[in-house]
């Protein structure tokens, strides 16, 4: 039987972590100076694409048959649509409502989905435990409050497949948002560079495309510097751009048309549609390019307050003034630089969304790098960055026309915002417990606006709008296949685990010679003994004195603090020397950043042994009991190899103290664990690959045997994610074992 206890590795480590990383939930209580600093940085990341929208909104709107006439009625109508769309959607919907539904400081479609999963129990993640709900960031309501959302929960309980349908809906919206990361850089840079044709008449479009491609390559090459440095570099450019276009807007109002303020009346929207009829309705797809979803998706990089301050007091008034008059490129250099900045928002948002997808088993494991020592959510993903660059270059070279790219971009933005509206309506029901009338009002009001623009964009599917749909469908399919295959692998491990009675029947030695040292057996199970270990026991004559089953899992919260990271339990009687350690991470946490994993793990196990069976009134904390009395900051050493060397020296020092009797007050088992640590640690990791049954359909065979198998063999293994030393790694698997499941068989290979 497993008896679990939550472990706190060391309080000093927590202090170091808090000093180095300011997680999003801590940003809510930081100083005014920090908020203003983040607000300044957000200009260079969050509002880049929003600020550069005047470069292409009017051009896309008045493309085709709907050209500008001598009178200003059409301009007034389009401006009226832009003003009210910009006011109602980004300002009222996002700043005042949606951004208040952050998941412990995280934003985006997956953050809303995470809230729903916790409060309505919709999660399909494996290895969920009751102990996870005790995490401080879980924050679910009490039983009395849960009754109000019981109807929605009962619906999902009666229809389990609806949970997968909801996941597919969220994945499609997320993929559309990722598609923005492909389209926004292309349309922003291409729009700005094409302005040079005004000064150089007859310049061929191929030269415009070549210059745009060089700028795009430079943009993506800067991403490895991180959001923090890029934000400080780009923020002055955005400020200069906003001041430039707003100043020219004011000048144009007084110089050419002081009555432009009349266009703010909704009357001109109705008149525009009645005059232009179908062509006016189709042109609304270009109007929707004036807004974006990225400021909610980028929430984890900054803080809600900083983003709200920047948008309300600078971005919103500056862009309204800019749209008051059709602004031509005021300064070509500033416009080009601003367009580069405009791409940063969606690129950073894409990194955040991919990170969340990886943690929730919806995307293959990739290399995720923290780029800031101060803000936790600022990350960089090399593989995704270069894939985005290649796709962006392909769109730029393939279409060469900002109007066609604008059609694709408008459809993607409208779809993402409609998905957010639907998810937010569910959050109002399940999390905020609002009245039915308020929920329907929110869904109908904002949903009708977005559906209006979506319908206008759908007409232009053949003129470029097919790109985000094709991209999103392919990426959604890959994500769904990865999630399906991962769940089937877990089912295989769960159904074929070794029974405890079989292990206990082997005796304390497990039928092998127990040699000094600690063996860490990685498994995807939080209970039971994995089949890999049964194969190990059967075929090898010896094993380590201390055995620890390690399960690294993600929970449906953005962050898990260091004090709640390890969940330690004992497997079998004490003389067997077998433990289980469940290492919990939030979907925004990065396991690879924990360079002192071994020390923290051993400290947690020793703490568990020392406090096992004690009354709660006499428990002592690890701030009083320091097994490894050495400072362990997150980035203690420059390389993993150097960190291992220092860790070994620390362990030798501790064991020297044991020999001299300093730790004589510890239990004999604790001293035995510390001595075993000095003998060395080995990491045992198993591999298995699902295979479709022979009777499966051709689609299932292709999805599992080809797609999932390819992704599994080319993604990063858990040992790479955790920075396991290759010299200490032993990979074991069950040779040619095939177990039939409902849809799959699973075969593991050595």
UniProtKB/TrEMBL annotation:
Residues in K+ potassium transporter integral membrane domain copies: 38-324, 325-504
Keyword tags: Ion transport, Membrane, Potassium, Potassium transport, Transmembrane, Transmembrane helix, Transport
InterPro entries from the UniProt entry: K+_transporter, K_trans_C, K_trans_N
Domain K+ potassium transporter C-terminal intervals: 516-734
Membrane topology (UniProt): Multi-pass membrane protein
GO molecular function: potassium ion transmembrane transporter activity
One protein family per Pfam: K_trans
TM annotation in the entry: 75-96, 164-187, 207-223, 230-254, 266-290, 302-323, 329-354, 375-397, 409-432, 439-459, 465-482
Single GO cellular component term: plasma membrane
Compartments where found: Cell membrane
Family note: Belongs to the HAK/KUP transporter (TC 2.A.72.3) family.
Name of the molecule in the record: Potassium transporter
Native source species: Dillenia turbinata
């Amino acid at each position: 039987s497993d008896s679990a206890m939550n472990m706190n590795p060391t309080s000093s480590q927590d202090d170091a972590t808090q000093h180095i990383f300011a997680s999003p939930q801590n940003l809510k209580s930081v100083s005014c100076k920090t908020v203003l600093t983040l607000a300044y940085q957000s200009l260079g990341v969050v509002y880049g694409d929003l600020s550069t929208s005047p470069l292409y909104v009017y051009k896309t709107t008045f493309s085709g048959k709907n050209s500008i006439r001598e009178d200003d009625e059409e301009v007034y109508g389009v401006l009226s649509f832009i003003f009210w769309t910009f006011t109602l959607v980004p300002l009222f919907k996002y700043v005042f409502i949606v951004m208040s539904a952050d998941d412990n400081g995280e934003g985006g479609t997956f953050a809303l989905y995470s809230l729903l999963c916790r409060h309505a129990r919709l999660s399909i993640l494996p290895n969920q435990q009751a102990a996870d709900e005790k995490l401080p960031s879980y924050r679910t309501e009490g039983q009395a409050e849960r009754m109000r959302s019981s109807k929605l929960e009962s619906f999902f309980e009666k229809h389990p497949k609806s949970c997968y349908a909801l996941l597919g809906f969220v994945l499609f919206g997320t993929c559309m948002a990722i598609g923005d990361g492909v389209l926004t850089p292309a349309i922003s840079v291409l729009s700005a560079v094409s302005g040079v044709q005004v000064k150089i008449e007859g310049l061929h479009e191929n030269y415009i495309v070549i210059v745009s491609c060089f700028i795009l390559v430079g943009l993506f090459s800067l991403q490895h510097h991180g959001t923090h440095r890029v934000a400080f570099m780009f923020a002055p450019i955005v400020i200069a751009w906003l001041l430039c276009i707003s100043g020219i807007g004011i000048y144009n109002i007084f110089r050419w048309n002081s009555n432009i303020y009349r266009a703010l009346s909704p009357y001109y929207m109705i008149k525009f549609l009645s005059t232009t009829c179908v062509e006016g309705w189709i042109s609304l797809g270009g109007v929707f390019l004036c807004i974006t979803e990225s400021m909610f998706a980028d929430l984890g990089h900054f803080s809600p307050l900083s983003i709200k301050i920047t948008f309300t007091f600078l971005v919103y008034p500056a862009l309204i003034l800019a749209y008051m008059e059709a602004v031509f490129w005021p300064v070509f250099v500033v416009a080009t630089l601003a367009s580069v900045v405009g791409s940063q928002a969606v690129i950073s948002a894409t990194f955040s969304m991919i990170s969340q997808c990886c943690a929730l088993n919806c995307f293959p494991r990739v290399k995720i790098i923290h780029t800031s020592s101060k803000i936790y959510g600022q990350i960089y993903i090399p593989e995704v960055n270069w894939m985005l660059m290649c796709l962006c270059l392909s769109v730029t070279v393939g279409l060469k026309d900002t109007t066609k790219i604008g059609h694709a971009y408008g459809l993607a933005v409208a779809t993402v915002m409609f998905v957010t509206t639907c998810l937010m309506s569910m959050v109002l029901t399940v999390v905020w417990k609002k009245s039915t009338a308020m929920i329907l009002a929110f869904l109908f009001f904002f949903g009708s606006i977005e559906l209006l623009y979506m319908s206008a964009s759908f007409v232009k599917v053949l003129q470029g709008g097919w790109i985000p749909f094709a991209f999103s469908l392919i990426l959604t399919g890959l994500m769904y296949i990865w999630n399906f295959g991962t769940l089937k692998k877990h089912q295989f491990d769960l159904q074929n685990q070794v029974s405890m009675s079989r292990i206990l029947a082997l005796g304390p030695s497990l039928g092998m010679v127990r040699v000094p040292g600690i063996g860490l057996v990685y498994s995807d199970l939080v209970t039971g003994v994995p089949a890999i270990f049964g194969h190990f026991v059967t075929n090898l004559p010896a094993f380590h004195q201390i055995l620890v089953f390690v399960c690294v899992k993600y929970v449906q919260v953005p962050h898990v603090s260091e004090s709640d990271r390890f969940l330690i339990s004992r497997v079998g009687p004490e003389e067997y020397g077998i433990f289980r350690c469940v290492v919990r991470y939030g979907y925004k946490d990065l396991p690879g950043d924990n360079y002192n994993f071994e020390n923290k793990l051993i400290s947690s196990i020793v703490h568990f042994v020392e406090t096992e069976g004690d009354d709660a009134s006499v428990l002592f904390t690890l701030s009083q009991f320091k097994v490894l009395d050495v400072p362990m900051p997150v980035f203690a050493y420059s390389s993993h190899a150097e960190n291992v060397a220092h860790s070994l020296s620390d362990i030798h020092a501790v064991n020297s103290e044991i020999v001299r009797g300093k730790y004589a007050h510890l239990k004999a088992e604790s001293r035995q664990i510390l001595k075993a640590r000095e003998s060395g640690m080995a990491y045992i990791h198993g591999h298995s690959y699902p295979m479709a049954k022979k009777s499966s359909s051709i689609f299932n065979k292709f999805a599992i045997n080809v797609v999932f198998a390819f992704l599994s063999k080319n993604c990063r293994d858990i040992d790479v994610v955790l920075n396991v030393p290759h010299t200490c790694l032993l990979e074991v698997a069950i040779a040619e074992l095939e177990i039939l499941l409902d849809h799959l068989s699973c075969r593991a290979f050595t």
